[in-house]
Amino acid sequence: MPDNNNTRSQYGNNRRDAKAPVESPLGKLQPQDTEIEEAVLGALMLTNDAYSQVSELLRPESFYDPKNQKIYEAIMMLGASQRPIDMLTVIEQLRENGTLEEVGGAVRVSELTGRVNSSAHLEFHARIVAQKFLARELITFSANIQSKAFDESNDVDDLLQEAEGELFKISQRNVKKDIIQIDPVIAQAVEQIEIAANRESGLSGLQTGFHKLDELTSGWQPSDLIIIAARPAMGKTAFVLSMAKNMAVNYNIPTAVFSLEMSNVQLVNRLICNVCELPGETIKSGRLTQLEWQQLNSRLQHLYGAPLYIDDTPSLSIFELRTKARRLVREHNVKTIIIDYLQLMNASGMKFGSREQEVSMISRSLKQLAKELNIPIIALSQLNRSVETRAEGKRPQLSDLRESGAIEQDADIVCFIHRPEYYTRSTTDAEGNDIQGLAEFIVAKHRNGRVADVKLRFKSKFARFQNWDDDYQVIQSTYESKMNATAEPAGQGAGFAAPPADNGGDAAAFLRDNTEQETPF
Questions:
Q1: Does the predicted TM-score (pTM) go above 0.85?
Q2: Beta pairing, strands 225-230 & 377-382
């Protein structure tokens, strides 16, 4: 805290006896300095534009002396209405407020301006007042929690949630970032461009493994809040698990998943289906053939040692998330956090007028956490039922986000997952286009780029999303091998027959004929 011993000397014999300070709940005097408070008030009335220097630092309750609180309140009202601030206008505002006599009358106000010569040290003094106010808040907070902790009728878990909520409110009220000149920001931006240029992928953010999506977003960007929303059965969890697997296993990106809906074992079972390409029913029943056991043991090796961290705390609060996220970044260098899903979170310890206000606070806190940790945070979200009531299309839109418009406002990117096949119960659309396994990943809001639809393939049997053309590339490669095999003597080729003549030797047709039929769930 700044040393204010030297500041008192400039007031000399003008110092008057301050109001006797009140003792704190711990039997000690609460942090306060009424002389510094009076210096701030006097300086504010000397220079008309002085208030702009401290308006973000101070509030009326920042002052310890109730009389000083009322004087600053009058100054704040003048500043808000952009009226001049001086001794006469402050006296007039106090008179309008009906508090002039309470603060000591016009004489007291005029004495304040005589205690300082200029407003040169105003901001320094204002920070002292703000710091002492923060110390008083923390003392009151800790005393209140201590008193409740001694009361055995209080549930400790509830008390812990309340303590986290109150401390969070105190910290948020006092978070201020200084304004900086643009040069260092330019240097940081250029450095990020150079890093992206040196990557093989050419992306500035984190790769998801979905190539078209990465091209659209240039990867998930640091400090972004990404919302992925869909109706039930569209595969939200399957998508983020597929993405988490790609990031952690394929690209070695430390990834954390907070699962509020499923246990960690359930989540890992779905991940095993994804990686090992074994049906979920087979995994649950344990009835695997010898070949499937070999496949399981072989492909599980890819998951061992992967930098993938899972937390299945139910009804996770935003305060618990902040604590755990900071530790994950600090101890495991986690680069992204996935939350499944936002509406199951809570802000316990804080009071709200409605669930919508609570969800708004949660989404705002997630964005703040993404900025603080400088990592992308990906949160799943539910959609309301209005999607189901549409006569045609069933495509989700921004207004379908459930419980709060603040989600759309706080998010940097809002995406939807839509599977036409689920609603049409057909493998083709009205124009005859193939929609078997089609999942449209709709980027509906993109604060720093364009919006577009990305075609993905959903394999419900393995609860997996993949690039739309992955199967085609595999079949194309197999088809070419088969074509080459037909030119070799019997028994010396790949051992496959060529595509039947009725598909005209077309690889695309060969893909359709050899792609496994899947049943949407």
A1: no
A2: parallel
